[in-house]
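wait is this the right file?? whatever heres the structure
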């Protein structure tokens, strides 16, 4: 189980956001090219499962992880 203290909350100011957008918005990756590579190569997880869809719609409370950083989608 993930330590809740290790999860950073990132406010998106709305109801949902696409995975690719969120990775950049949260500061996990810098460019669209980096996002595309990381997702396609299976380095990004959503709620503990690898997700290879940049356009996946994230919802409030979803947890995204990349290279040891864990962030939660918040309003």
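ok assuming it is, sequence goes like this
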């Amino acid at each position: 189980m993930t330590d809740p203290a290790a999860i950073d909350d990132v406010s998106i100011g709305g109801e949902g956001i696409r995975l690719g957008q969120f990775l950049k918005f949260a500061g996990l990756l810098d460019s669209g090219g980096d996002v595309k590579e990381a997702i396609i190569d299976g380095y990004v997880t959503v709620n503990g499962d690898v997700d290879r869809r940049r356009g996946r719609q994230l919802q409030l409370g979803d947890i995204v992880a990349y290279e040891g950083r864990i962030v939660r989608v918040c309003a």
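The chain has one domain: 4-74. so i think its the right one actually
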